[in-house]
């Protein structure tokens, strides 16, 4: 048996080696601060059906800046959530306040970016002037800017992690070195009450080639960011990635969707703003004309609410170069553990701002996470609403997850147009 000094030196060497490995580990989606996975999905409930936080939640700590807002009184917010991951693909109840602890998927994954030294791009069409985007009029960026929100981070080798979010005004800084100056940067701690309605979050591990494909997709979708502002962009790593980052923050003239198969098997679909077609019909078409069921911000009675379509077929608002889409059903309610909740859009605390879907036909079972609402037009004003904006969709082939989400959003369905 080695002497105590030798034993101590050996332990020290192992600890230093472990720290070195950890410091050079590729960024990954995290379920908590020490549990990397290939992907995870989280769904945050609305304040009417699932108020407050889950379990024995601590007082909101606002770990990325800000202070608890007045809307965090009982019933006016929700940070209760369910989640699934590559290590547990069926949805399960989460604990605490999503996004506000190192022990939940959103908080842990964002924390490695915000408190680390990774390169990053943050994009959001609703920064609400912190940071200000010079090329946008007002505090939000409207069409033809992309309706898209998220953060991408990568290391010196180009390996990365992306987190798609549906939350306005969060995130709005990628680093603790460059915090927001007029608002917080933590869910539940920003002036906009984006924890009142349902939201979704999706994170995926990326290879260097995936990072480049995603950056090209972001440019194609005209996402809102600013490569010259260190609050939302830190550019570095491989030269081709740096060049792709430098092209962001501009409005693309493309009318061609970008479809990329990532190393994980996920299909990335980028809709450009100039491709003026209904968003979820585009997703169906690019996935082989499969049937879909989608839950988005869908306002019943509003002229731009696209109805369900019961049969395959090209709508009048279509591009002749595109394949034929399958039927797209619009989910208007769902349930979790016997508690029903609304999946419609609208003002108030009983609504849904997540953009999620599942396949209902075809060979593969897809869970789909998007930027875009099913609002616009099948015919008539083809530039209406989301038809005239860009955004991304991640289609993940996983039967267990797709089945679990299908059950979550398996309530009522909007009436069909045909």
UniProtKB/TrEMBL annotation:
Cleaved signal peptide residues: 1-25
InterPro entries: DNase_II
The entry's keywords: Hydrolase, Signal
Domain of life: Bacteria
Pfam families xrefs: DNase_II
Protein family per UniProt: Belongs to the DNase II family.
Protein name: Deoxyribonuclease II family protein
Organism: Chromobacterium vaccinii
């Amino acid at each position: 048996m080695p002497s105590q000094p030798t034993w101590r030196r050996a332990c020290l060497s192992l600890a230093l080696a472990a720290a070195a490995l950890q410091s050079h580990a590729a960024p990954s989606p995290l379920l908590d601060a020490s549990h990397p996975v290939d992907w995870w999905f989280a769904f945050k409930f609305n304040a009417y059906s699932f108020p407050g936080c889950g379990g024995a939640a601590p007082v909101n700590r606002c770990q990325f800046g800000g202070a608890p807002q007045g809307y965090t009184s009982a019933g006016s917010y929700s940070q209760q959530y369910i989640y699934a991951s590559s290590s547990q693909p069926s949805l399960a109840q989460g604990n605490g306040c999503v996004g506000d602890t190192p022990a939940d998927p959103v908080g842990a994954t964002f924390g490695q970016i915000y408190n680390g030294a990774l390169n990053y791009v943050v994009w959001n069409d609703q920064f609400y002037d912190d940071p200000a985007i010079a090329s946008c009029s007002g505090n939000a960026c409207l069409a033809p800017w992309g309706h898209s929100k998220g953060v991408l981070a990568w290391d010196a080798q180009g390996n990365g992690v992306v987190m798609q979010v549906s939350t306005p005004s969060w995130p709005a800084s990628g680093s603790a070195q460059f915090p927001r100056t007029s608002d917080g940067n933590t869910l539940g701690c920003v002036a906009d009450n984006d924890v009142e309605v349902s939201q979704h979050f999706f994170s995926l591990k990326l290879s260097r080639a995936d990072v480049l494909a995603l950056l090209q997709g972001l440019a194609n979708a005209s996402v809102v960011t600013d490569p010259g502002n260190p609050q939302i962009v830190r550019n570095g790593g491989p030269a081709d990635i740096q060049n792709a980052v430098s092209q962001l923050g501009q409005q693309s003239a493309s009318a061609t969707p970008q479809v990329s198969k990532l190393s994980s098997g996920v299909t990335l679909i980028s809709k450009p703003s100039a491709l003026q077609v209904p968003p979820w019909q585009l997703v169906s078409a690019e996935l082989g004309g499969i049937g879909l069921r989608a839950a988005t911000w869908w306002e019943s009675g509003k002229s731009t609410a696209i109805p369900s379509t019961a049969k395959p077929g090209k709508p009048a608002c279509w591009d002749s170069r595109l394949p034929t889409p399958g039927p797209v059903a619009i989910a208007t309610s769902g349930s979790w553990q016997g508690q029903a909740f609304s999946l419609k859009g609208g003002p108030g605390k009983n609504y849904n701002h997540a953009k999620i879907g599942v396949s209902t036909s075809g060979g593969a079972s897809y869970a789909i996470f998007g930027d875009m609402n099913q609002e616009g037009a099948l015919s008539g004003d083809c530039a209406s609403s989301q038809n005239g904006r860009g955004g991304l969709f991640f289609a993940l082939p996983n039967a267990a997850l797709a089945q679990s989400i299908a059950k979550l959003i398996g309530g009522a369905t909007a009436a069909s147009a045909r």
